[in-house]
Amino acid sequence: MDIRILRYFLTVAREQNFTKAAEQLNITQPTLSRQLAALEEELGTALFIRGSRSITLTEAGILLKRRALEIIDLEEKMLDEIKAREELIEGTITVGCGEFAAVETLAEICKVYKKKYPMVQIALYTATADSVYEMMNQGLVDIGLFLEPVNTEGLDYIRIMESDHWVVGMKPDDALVDKEYITKEDLLDKPLILPRRQNVQSEFANWFGKDFNKLHVSFISNLGTNAGVMAIHGLGYPVSIEGAAKYWREDLLVQRRLYPEITASTVIAWRRNIPYSLAMNKFIEEINAFKA
Q: Which keywords does UniProt give here (predicted)?
């Protein structure tokens, strides 16, 4: 039995008139009559009592109407489920980032995204900006978070203005802990731990001015966590962005902002004009929605 014919039958039963039903179905009245006559022949029973002005259902017609409505409803549910399955978004999105405050923004974006698309896995890759940038060019990282300055050629991105502050880390019993801010003079005779990225070092050098070459740089570190470990062991004062400082135990490491203040902006970026998966395109939509 063709579901299309069942729909014809239900339309006639609703309109109680072949002509009106044919108009609803955009077919001719003789065609509709032939189709339903063939249905009655197939079932071996009359479905309609054909009056001069209207049509009513026989007992068999009433039974068929009830079952036909169930079949049509089941078909619609099945199609909805299949469509939903086709639109189910799965996959993995790889995000490369350093240890800085804008990861909080990333978490907000991910929270909204995961609520909509729970089957997508997000892989976090923590590394320096240079490593993340290289992996993006190789197609191994989809989204990159970069502390500025960064080369954005070939990238689409949003900028999170002044999302981080430069700080100095120290042990909680250090003499500098009592200071609200750390100045250039405070650092002249201290062993420092500086970020590995040259352009980030340049930001600090510009802030420090003509005496930058007089500084005692004891360590270079590409990530803040290991620099913090060195500081806890009394090996130096890490100069870096504030980043995830609030997750450090203050009985191990304390941070104080530099003065005059230095702030840093962050970009959340992805490669331009690249064919992405549906999961990735939806993630980009969430990033741009956050910007708006």
A: DNA-binding, Transcription, Transcription regulation
> What integer pLDDT is reported at residue 84 of this predicted model?
56
Which residues in the chain land under pLDDT 50? none
Task: Give the C-alpha separation, 127 to 14, whole Å.
Answer: 67
Tokens of 123: 């892989």
- What pTM did the predictor assign? 0.65
Cross-strand pairs, 219: 193
Per-domain residue ranges of the chain: 3-86, 92-267
The string of DSSP codes covering 162-184 is EEEEEEEEE-TTSGGGG-SEE-H
**So what's the pLDDT on residue 168?**
95
CATH architecture of 3-86: Orthogonal Bundle (1.10)
Max CA pair span of the chain: 109
The whole-number pLDDT of residue 82 equals 67
Count other Cβ atoms within 10 Å, centred on residue 241.
26
- Separation between Cα atoms, residue 180 and residue 256, nearest integer Å: 7
SS3 content of the chain, % helix, strand, coil (to 5): 45, 25, 30
The beta strand positions in 37-116, using DSSP E, are 48-50, 55-57, 91-97
Tell me: the pLDDT tens digits for 192-248? 999 888 878 888 899 999 989 889 999 999 878 889 899 999 999 999 888 766 667
Taking the CB of residue 274, how many other CB atoms lie within 10 A of it? Answer: 12
